[in-house]
Amino acid sequence: MSKSEIKFGTDGWRGVIARDFTFENINLVSLATGKQFLEDLSINKNVKNLVFVGYDRRFLGKEFAERVSAVLSHQGLNVHLYSQDVPTPMVSFDVKNNNAVGGIVITASHNPPQFSGFKIKQPSGCSASKDYTDKIEKRLLALQTTSLYEQANTATINPSKDYLDFIKQTIDIEKLKSTNDTIIVDPMHGTGGTYIERFLSGGKLKIKTIRADIDVTFGGINPEPMMPQLLPLSNEVIKNKALIGLATDGDADRVGAIDEIGEYINTHKILAILLYYLVEKKRLSGGVVVTFSQSVLVKTMAKKYGLKLYEVPIGFKHIADLMIKNDILIGGEEANGIGCKLHFMPERDGIFNSLLLLEAITSIGLKPSQLIDKLHNEFGAFYYDRSDVHIPSSERGKEFVENIKRNPPKDLNGMKIKEVQTLDGTKLILDDESWLLFRASGTEPLLRIYSECRSKTMVSEMLKTGEILFRDSLKCNVK
């Protein structure tokens, strides 16, 4: 892999371990990032010469983080390296809480086990903006070969007590512990580990954690908290007659959930539940941010509540940017990332949001499926799903998305297309507000096909139609 091929996507640079994600390339990216941090320090006198470096549980995560620390410290930066794997939100919190110039997390988040990644955190605690990573990519091109530093003059620190104390002060932990329910927690072998169980132990609430042990293969799945990866969690919820199952992804910045009957609660519904709770129970206000693939349900709720609605491209950093600049109550992306004004930072946090979701459900006093039915009855029923199609390259996916934008079909499954939107990908909207979205992934060679319709059957049929359109385009190209 050449320097010109090291590209930052929706949240960091990611690559296959030992092929793209190598110590040599880590050296280069760390050197370029360190140079940018040093420039930031010379311009912004309000931030400290302090960089937090964390890592997840993937293969060689600790060793990659040590290499990052070595390169940064040799440039004169004051580096704090965690003594063990930690959740990405913990690094984000420490960066902002300590007024640091930045942070680095070695993680590929929810991507397959063979991937690793390099996330950059800015002083606000949120992920680096595109403008910022563009600067680092330019610095990369100007670099010559560098020495592979073996020793790092860094401080080794324990997981952040400040982060844990913040959660205890913001979520009513004692009230949650006093409820006579059972919950199942699933960190999917990721850095979420037993944090949620430790928060909630010691009361009437019964907690069982599954898949908390370290497994660099994540049990052979992508550590993304959605179906079918959450089948083990669903089975445990049913087996234990639990109130809810709570899941976090590989680096614990995303949240997933299973209701009391074993059904997956997608991010659209989680966002709707949290919005309902924050407005109806907490009496909070502010804007609502959704990404291009988010639900009509949340948009309908925002309109009814009289809250300003923002729609942004896919990627949580677009939500974070608005949270920094405006009064935002809550924002969410389809891929299990949610942030709200109760949090200290404008960033996703799977552990915090798991606890907030549990607080919302117990405070409202309905089982999860009952609460979702209530929202559907009050605001309208919408059903959502996503299909990921593996493709030879991201470029092939981008070509297809562009072709659909230029030459959209006249109808989908006999229903007329009333509008084509292109904020991020190509979105075909039908008369009844149902939609089908095509988008090339920014981190993997995948074509993502999203759909939301008025029934589960319609969603399934719409996704099949989307896949057929793509497969037919491949046949045309072969000819």
Using brief descriptors, characterize the structure shown.
39% helix, 6-stranded antiparallel β-sheet, alpha/beta, TATA-Binding Protein, Alpha-D-Glucose-1,6-Bisphosphate, Chain A, domain 3, 6-stranded mixed β-sheet, 15 helices, 479 residues, single chain
How is this structure best described in words?
- The model has no long low-confidence stretch (mean pLDDT 92).
- The chain is α/β, with parallel strands linked by helices and 479 residues long.
- The chain has 3 domains: 160 residues, Alpha-D-Glucose-1,6-Bisphosphate, subunit A, domain 3 (Alpha-D-Glucose-1,6-Bisphosphate, Chain A, domain 3, 3-Layer(aba) Sandwich); 200 residues, Alpha-D-Glucose-1,6-Bisphosphate, subunit A, domain 3 (Alpha-D-Glucose-1,6-Bisphosphate, Chain A, domain 3, 3-Layer(aba) Sandwich), CATH 3.40.120.10; 96 residues, Alpha-D-phosphohexomutase, C-terminal domain (TATA-Binding Protein, 2-Layer Sandwich), CATH 3.30.310.50.
- It is globular and about 60 Å long.
- Helix 1 crosses helix 2, helix 1 packs across helix 4 and helix 9 runs parallel beside helix 10.
- The longest helix is centred in the C-terminal third of the chain and has 23 residues.
- The strands form 4 sheets. It has a 6-stranded mixed β-sheet, with helices on both faces.
- The chain has 15 helices and 21 strands.
- The two termini are 32 Å apart.
